[in-house]
Specification:
Blueprint (H helix, E strand, L loop, with lengths): L26 H8 L3 H11 L4 E2 L8 E2 L2 H10 L16 H25 L13 E7 L6 E2 L5 E6 L4 E6 L5 E3 L11 E8 L5 E8 L4 E8 L6 E4 L5 E8 L5 E8 L2 E8 L5 E6 L10 E2 L5 E7 L7 E7 L6 E5 L5 E6 L5 E6 L6 E8 L2 E10 L6 E5 L5 E16 L19 E6 L5 E6 L14 E5 L5 E4 L5 E7 L6 E6 L4 E2 L2 E2 L2 E5 L6 E5 L6 E6 L5 E6 L2 E6 L5 E6 L3 E7 L5 E8 L3 E8 L5 E7 L5 E6 L5 E7 L5 E7 L5 E7 L3 E6 L5 E17 L5 H5 L3
Antiparallel strand pairs: 1-2, 3-49, 4-5, 5-6, 6-7, 8-9, 9-10, 10-11, 12-13, 13-14, 14-15, 16-17, 17-18, 18-19, 20-21, 21-22, 22-23, 24-25, 25-49, 26-27, 27-28, 28-29, 30-31, 31-34, 32-33, 34-35, 36-37, 37-38, 38-39, 40-41, 41-42, 42-43, 44-45, 45-46, 46-47, 48-49
Helix pairs in contact: 1-2
Length: 699
């Protein structure tokens, strides 16, 4: 399995033509630079404020540091001049005594009256002795470990086959060899090792027939057979084994919607346990140790993205009980082997934590206990017999680059620079070119995703930055108004699911005060993108299959264009005469079309046989050319431009990276784009529950 590593790092530059300072990319490199060992370097970060940066949050975050910042920190650590009395960071002794007395009284009060005045606090301290460590590069949530923790089965996405890795030796071998990622595509989707460790169940997708088969193969690659064919729709995450190895739980897509099913290994018969409302996936499924119930996660209200945890009976009665119900977001992680207790992920405390809930039958007992704090928005894999728990960490970074461009040729004239620190989204230049508005990607406890409602503006002349206190939960796109008095933001204030995505609307945000008001929204459809009119008196936007223009003052809407293939990108020419729109269809491919806003005439500029080929689009400053990013699949991305009159595409640049979010500077002499990098790793949580291993010796 290939491990995807981040290939770049952000850096502040005062001049956009200044080369990027090369960061130190690991604890080892940082320690070597400081001429100390790694333990000392880590201790300096904790105790002395050593300026260490991280590519993300949680256990999957790698570290980096800039030599200039380390040098500045080292200088600041030198002893102060004689005669200078250091200021103690601690309060005076009298204050410490007062605080100690108050704390003692509070403890006595709690011991005497706490249980009467207050229920037990569910925010218990995390269990001591719990540790996590990385065990596998690459993804693993579509697979899982053997019960003894020796092997790990997964989908090798380079080939589409099922593979197994020995976690002790690192030996890697395929179990299947007939996957094809070419014309007649067929490949594995999900897999899991049986409770006795002898077989692997997996989904096998046949693209030409558009269905998935449930298959079984020995851990040694022998005795491959099909358990369930195509009669029951397309399956996903069908490999949740019962503890006795006789059944497999499945999520089905059928004409009746999504269903939870139970498949017999012996004869392939299917029992539908429950038909779920809506189109939301229930996530990974887990049998109870006695096989009487199936645990799954699902929204408790329509269009909500906050999940609760439910048990459905496996006897076919469809009896369903909510065992973890809370206004926060909860995701099932799995049952503790040999114990009536369930692990779940929750953001109820403000961070993503692992909790444990005791269960009797189908009812929760007592309050849940917090086991591990601030683990991040992990993906569940499952536990093994010794009580260890495997999970996947997915990390995503967005690095924004600026390139100087020759206006005549469109070619880059210098090296790429990075004006923004860290991982950020949707930067947009102000009309005068001095400011850059953007949304930093920060880990947020509101739920899964990478965007939050934070807005920042950077002065490119002075390097100063300021936070805009808007009240949005998520931001996708930012656009300055022509007079620079307001920001048009595509995002959302509350988490509502429409067509498996968060419903987004258009908002107007004051760049000074952060005051936010709704500009345009559609109850059942997301607004994908917005663009100011040249005079600032209205906004063009795409919602569903329609492009609208909405008047800023009156709110009146006018339909500009309708097409069922309309996608997210749109770009208005500088003079306001032409509107370029992105079209995309999974069957017909993708392309760009241009609307003459005066005559309504449409002219198709580009056609590609591949869907999702366009990754970004914008006009140059004089409206003569339309620049666009084109996906080249696994080869990366290329930058092109096409003449508005000539209609001849011209390739300007390419890269082996995945890039998107193209924006040109108002002067036409610079452009910015974003490189998106991903990394998935498998981790294990050990020492989770003292005594669980002893309990499992009885199994």
């Amino acid at each position: 399995m290939e491990k995807h590593r981040r290939t770049g790092s952000a850096n502040t530059v005062e001049n956009l033509t200044t080369p990027i300072e090369k960061p130190l990319q690991s604890w080892k490199e940082i320690a070597a630079y400081l001429e100390r060992d790694e333990r000392t370097t880590r201790r300096w970060e904790q105790n002395s404020g050593l300026p260490i940066r991280r590519h993300g949050e949680g256990p999957g975050s790698s570290v980096y540091a800039y030599p200039s910042e380390l040098n500045a920190w080292r200088l600041a650590q030198k002893p102060k001049a004689a005669g200078t009395k250091p200021v103690s960071p601690f309060p005076p002794r009298s204050a410490v005594l007062t605080i100690s007395v108050i704390a003692l009284l509070m403890i006595i009060w709690f011991i005497k009256f706490g249980p009467i005045l207050n229920p037990p606090n569910p925010l218990a301290e995390a269990a001591a002795g719990v540790e996590i460590r990385e065990v596998l590069p690459g993804g693993g949530s579509e697979g899982g470990p053997s019960p003894d923790g020796q092997y790990f089965a997964f989908v090798d996405w380079d080939t589409g086959n099922i593979a197994v890795e020995d976690l002790a030796t690192g030996e890697h071998r395929n179990l299947t060899y007939n996957a094809s990622m070419e014309e007649a595509k067929e490949y594995a989707l999900w897999c899991a090792i049986s409770p006795d460790g002898t077989s692997v169940a997996y989904d096998w997708y046949l693209e030409d027939k558009d269905f998935t088969e449930l298959r079984l193969i020995g851990l040694d690659g022998s005795n491959q057979r099909t358990i369930l064919g195509s009669d029951f729709g397309t399956m996903r995450e069908t490999v949740a084994w019962s503890s006795d190895g006789k059944y497999i739980a499945t999520t089905l897509i059928t004409k009746d919607g999504r269903q939870l099913g139970w498949i017999s290994i012996s004869d392939g018969s299917l029992r539908v346990l429950k038909t779920l409302p809506g189109r939301t996936w229930p996530g990974k499924l887990f049998h109870s140790p006695d096989n009487r119930h199936l645990a799954y996660s699902y929204p408790s209200a329509k269009n909500s993205s906050n999940f609760d945890i439910f048990l459905v009976s496996t006897d076919g009665s469809q009896k369903t009980t909510a065992i973890v119900k809370h206004p926060a977001n909860e995701r099932v992680l799995g049952w503790i082997p040999g114990r009536a207790a369930i692990l779940f992920l929750s953001d109820r405390s403000g961070t993503w934590d692992v909790w444990l809930q005791e269960i009797t039958g189908d009812k929760p007992i007592g309050y849940p206990q917090r086991i591990y704090t601030n683990i991040g928005d992990i993906q569940p894999i499952g536990p093994v017999k010794d009580g260890s728990y495997y999970f996947e960490v997915y990390s995503r970074w967005v690095n924004n680059y600026v390139a100087d461009v020759d206006q005549e040729t469109g070619r880059f004239t210098g090296s790429l620079t990075q004006p923004l620190i860290g991982s950020n989204y949707s930067p947009d230049w102000s009309p005068d070119g001095r400011f850059l508005a953007y949304s930093p990607i920060i880990s947020s406890p509101e739920g899964p995703g990478f965007f939050n409602g934070s807005l920042r503006i950077r002065d490119l002349h002075t390097g100063e930055e300021r936070e805009i206190p808007c009240d949005l939960l998520g931001i996708y796109e930012i656009r300055w108004s022509p007079d620079m008095k307001v920001l048009l933001v595509t995002g959302y204030k509350k988490r509502e699911i429409v067509d498996d995505h968060l419903r987004s609307s258009l908002y107007l945000v004051d760049p000074q005060s952060g005051k936010t008001e709704v500009f345009a929204e559609k109850p059942e459809v997301s607004i994908k993108s917005g663009q100011w009119k040249a005079d600032g008196q209205g906004v063009y936007f795409v919602s569903g299959s329609t492009a609208f223009m909405q008047n800023l003052k009156t709110g009146d809407q006018k339909i500009i264009y309708e097409n069922p293939d309309l996608s997210g990108y749109l770009a208005l020419s500088p003079g306001g005469d032409y509107l370029a729109l992105h079209l995309d269809d999974p069957e017909k491919g993708s392309g760009l079309t241009m609307i003459n806003l005066s005559s309504g005439e449409e002219r198709r500029l580009l056609n590609f046989s591949e869907p999702r080929a366009i990754r970004g689009v914008d006009w140059d400053s004089d409206g003569r050319h339309l620049y666009y990013l084109k996906s080249e699949g696994e080869k990366g991305t290329s930058l092109w431009r096409i003449g508005q009159k000539e209609g001849i595409p011209e390739k300007l640049w390419d890269t082996d990276k995945s890039i998107n979010n193209l924006t040109l500077h108002p002067s036409g002499r610079q452009l910015t784009f974003a490189e998106v990098t991903h990394e998935t790793t498998v981790w294990v949580m050990e020492g989770l529950l003292p005594g669980t291993g002893t309990m499992n010796q009885k199994d």
